[in-house]
Design a protein that fits this description.
The chain has about 200 residues and is mainly α. About 75% of the residues lie in helices and about 0% in strands. The chain has 9 helices and no strands.
């Protein structure tokens, strides 16, 4: 039962407290670039979540059973990037085949998942935090869901901004960054909640 509570704490912490976009500020490029429309934001969030999960499932064993065994820990970043790039290529082919509209909507941002620092950050931080394989998968799922939540929330905020009368000096990127900072501040209010629930 204690393991179950530990996994729930990791999941909630990854979604709310340590949100990679709003607390750690990783993955800002797709967050700002693909959040204009809800369907594209949702598609990107689901795609990133899938890549995070699969990348963790592949990189965790590579780290512990190949790199550490052979004393090649210094190759971690390069190997992880190659794994993530391969996974994104597979995802792109699958989306092109089964969901051409989403593939076209995501456009250039889909291949950019390869360079999304949130995906690499999750894979590396799971190793650095000393998580077991199951804990790493739960953490990756939480980080992906947190990314999806941030994308969907920000998509809603941006649609409201588009319908509002924004003063001329704040139009465009300025108001977008201000809105993102307010959402980030709101998420920082979750700090300590998970500790209080599972203390």
């Amino acid at each position: 039962m204690e393991m179950f509570y530990s996994l729930i704490a990791i999941l909630l912490s990854s979604v709310l407290v340590d949100n990679y976009v709003l607390s750690r500020f990783l993955g800002i490029c797709p967050f700002l670039g693909v959040s204009k429309k809800l369907d594209q934001a949702t598609g990107m969030g689901i795609s990133v979540t899938a890549v995070m999960l699969i990348a963790t499932a592949v990189t965790w064993p590579i780290q512990y059973f190949v790199l550490d065994k052979l004393g090649l820990g210094y190759m971690q970043t390069i190997v992880f990037i190659l794994v993530i790039a391969s996974l994104v290529q597979m995802l792109e082919l699958i989306l092109k085949r089964f969901s051409p509209a989403l593939h076209k909507g995501l456009g250039v941002y889909l291949p950019l998942i390869t360079t999304n620092c949130a995906v690499l950050g999750v894979a590396i931080n799971n190793i650095t935090d000393g998580y077991s394989f199951v804990e790493s998968l739960v953490s990756s799922l939480g980080c992906g869901l947190g990314f999806l939540l941030a994308m969907v929330l920000f998509s809603g905020v941006r649609s409201r901004i588009d319908e509002s009368r924004v003063p001329k000096p704040f139009r465009g990127l300025a108001v977008t960054l201000i809105a993102a900072s307010f959402i980030s501040l709101a998420f920082m209010g979750f700090a300590g909640v998970v500790d209080a629930l599972f203390a």
